[in-house]
Amino acid sequence: MVVRAILMDFNGVIINDEPIQMKAYQEILSSEGIDLTEEDYLASLGMDDRTFVASAFERAGRTIDGAKIDEVTKAKLAMWREVVADDLPIFEGVEEFIAKMAREFTLGIVSMSGRNEIEFVLEKSGLSHHFAGIVSADDVSKCKPDPEAFRLGFKMLDAARNSRGHMPMTHPECVVIEDSPPGVAGARTADLQVLGVANTVSEEVLRNAGARAVAWDLRDWMPESIRLVFNHN
Description:
By secondary structure, this protein is α/β, with parallel strands linked by helices. The chain is built from ten helices and six strands. The protein has a six-stranded parallel β-sheet, sandwiched between helices. The longest helix is centred in the N-terminal third of the chain and has 19 residues, at 66-84.
């Protein structure tokens, strides 16, 4: 099997905003009388915003309705956008990595962020044209580690390739790049290969979740590296 497509996570892979997301949520939830620790935040990786907020209230023994969830998530989005708008915290070298990979593979994004957040960053960074499609929290009913988003992402990239006259892909021909254990686990359940990136958790944690290989810096990886590690008979 030969690698033909790559699905990339967004937060923690393209944009270095996990600390920004955590700080925003800590401030907003603190005003609600809820203490969010770093351990709590890391244990919630892979959740979409609505699930994250509901879980934070549940941990505190509090109930929350849909309207309140909307209020909290909108406040977080506004705070996040204010921080990243003037100086996007894109990981150093990721723009070059994406450009290199886009010349050889069909690229897509699978993320539990909202589509408006993803598109805001891609447009502002000039990266939009490299991606054949996006799967966001708005497109699925279950968050990572459920494989729903990855299955949808695979179909999306396969359809994009088919529209350009390529033959259908098989699952081993699509590699996922992920920084979180739930993301790695979801991709593996969807029968996709995974390159972990140790931006958020350790190499050991990513490998234990099912990553076939782990990168410490995506700048070290070339299309030939992807093929060498992930192509197989």
